[in-house]
Amino acid sequence: MTDAATTTDHSVDDGSEPILRVENISKLFGGVHAVERCSMKVGRGSITGLIGPNGSGKTTLFNVLTGMTQSDDGGAYFLNRKINGLKPHAIFNLGMSRTFQITRVFKKMTVMENLRVAAAHGAGGEDILERAEELLRLFNLWDLHDRYAEDLSYGQQKLLEFARALMPDPVMVMLDEPFAGVNRVMAGKLVELIQRFQSQGTTFFLIDHEMKIVMDVCEWIYVMDFGEVIAKGRPQLIRENPKVLEAYFGR
Amino acid sequence: MKVRIFQATLAATLIFFALLPTFADRYFINYFLLLFMYLTLAGSWNIITGYVGYLALGHASFFGVGAYVSALLIIEFGVFWPIAALAGGVGAAICAAIMGGICLRLRHIFFAIATLAFSEAIRVIVLSWDDVTYGGFGVSIPLYPYLAPFYYFMGGCAVATVLMTFFLARSNFGLRLLAIREDEDAAESVGVDTTRCKIIAFVMSAVLCGVAGGVYAPYITYIEPVSTFSVLITTQLIVMAVFGGTGTIWGPVIGVILLSTMQEIFWAQFPYLHRVLFGALIVGTILWMPHGLIDVLKTRGLLPRSRNL
Question: Number of Cβ pairs closer than 8 Å across A and B?
Fold first, then answer.
């Protein structure tokens, strides 16, 4: 395996070993191809984006990759291990965590408890609390650590969910629309956090509609439409790709 | 300071109940023995329904299985009753592991219906398998001539239930259960092996019910399927736990104490109307405090919003 971490270019077209390989994944919902023969690679240490119009199958693909939905065909490999067919908690324990399109924090649990529950298995009590405090301070949530998650604003819940995903020090984080419904300042904060953790070696794979941010943040982008990958490449190429423009504006 | 007062009250209560058989009338010993039994049942049920959020309607069967295992061990093999009672707990645990393995695949109301059906199935098995269980004739257990040992054993079950809930509420395992209650799919996605956690919690919520049944059988000296597996036992413990507050440590305790006392008074004062009054109380609870007394006190600011209550 080549050591991708030492290369400055994180995209996968340089021949380095991808951290996530998606090979011909298909998912049918009663005859409708939500995802059709999708293939993708996410480079180790990269920030990779997945965009596409509503209903193009992005979230379904994320659900397949995180074990929340079972694929009908194809294979997904994370750190060279087949992950489709595994349960979500098993995939999480391999080092892949996620957030949700509509935040799913545990509302009747405190901010601190939300993080503690996501701690890596086998971590000691003290280590868990230290890690949680470090993350909460970084996310400006420390002052709220003993509040119930339901008392937080939507933006704060979004931050909390992101912090929770980072709790076990995952290899890769899947973010499903991290910028949806948050204001500009908060979006800037999220970008800063994503880049900070990327610089420490975490890989990010994210879905979003906020084209400008996706183009700025991601090094490599996949575009889906009607369940298929219609384009892939660096942001500047994606921006000019006629197929992408048609998918977004053409109909 | 408040913690001190609480601890002192708790210690005084425990000492009072420990000494009770030395001075009290048999009526009170019997009364508190049954109260301890309901503390055990309601507190145990609270683990799966209050903490994990799965409405279980089959807890009478754990009680019944415990009672039958204990009774049959005593009469067939001459096992000493405290050991038979513990074996009843093991029987209930095995029963819960099987029931949980099947029913916990279902969620919401479907789980509730499945547990109800499962417990009815167990009752029918006990009723018809008369070679082993003596069927509808029931089982008579020779009288053990002392009352206090039953009282202490049942008290021990109640204390064990509260302690188990207390440690659960503070543990990481307990947090995983709460996460399942809040959002099961999200819990899976943050590494909680939900199936395994749910089955463990279900077994935990059954084992002391089985022990309580195992003590009840030699105490009452006669058991038969209809009353031992009665749905009334399940509804009774649910009403008590809900009245005090599910998902809390002390809710079921308070619910059991208040409602058993009230029932005792109603029953003595209004021999014909007491069931009606009790029914009205249930309706009132659901209408005005669906989350129970503890929750009302917490929202009024009379109790802190702590997991340790």
Answer: 68
So where are chain A's domains?
10-250
Q: In A, what residues contact B, Cβ < 8 A?
A: 66-68, 87-89, 92-93, 97-98, 100, 104-109, 113, 116-121, 148, 164-165, 167-168
B176–A98 CB contact, under 8 Å: no
What are the sequence ranges of the domains in chain B? 23-229
Hey, are the CB atoms on A117 and B186 less than 8 Å from each other? no
Take residue B98 and report the two structure tokens written for it. Answer: 């099987």
Count of other CB atoms within 10 angstroms of residue B280:
11
Cα separation, B49 vs B108, whole angstroms: 11
CA dihedral B240, B241, B243, B248 (to 10 degrees): 150
Cβ proximity of A101 and A177 under 8 Å: yes
CA distance B145 to B133: 24
Per-residue pLDDT of chain B (309 residues; tens, 9 = 90+): 678 888 898 899 889 888 888 888 888 999 999 999 999 999 999 999 999 999 999 999 999 999 999 999 999 998 999 999 999 999 999 999 999 999 988 888 999 999 999 999 999 999 998 888 888 788 888 888 888 999 999 999 999 999 999 999 888 899 999 999 999 999 999 999 999 999 999 999 999 999 999 999 999 999 999 888 988 889 889 999 999 999 999 999 999 999 888 888 888 888 788 788 878 888 888 888 888 888 888 888 788 777 767
Give me the residue label for tokens 């180790």: A44
- Say if the Cβ atoms of A89 and B188 lie within 8 Å: yes
- Give the ipTM of the model, two decimals please: 0.85
CATH entry, A10-250, from 3.60.110.10, 3.30.70.360, 3.30.420.60, 3.40.50.300 = 3.40.50.300
Structural tokens at position B9:
């009250």
Alpha-carbon distance of B297 to B255, in angstroms, equals 13
Buried b (16+ CB within 10 A) or exposed e, B200-231: bbbbbbbbbbbbbbbbbbbbeeebbbeebbee
Return d(Cα A159, Cα B213) in angstroms, integer.
49
The C-alpha atoms of residue A138 and residue A158 are separated, in whole angstroms, by 14
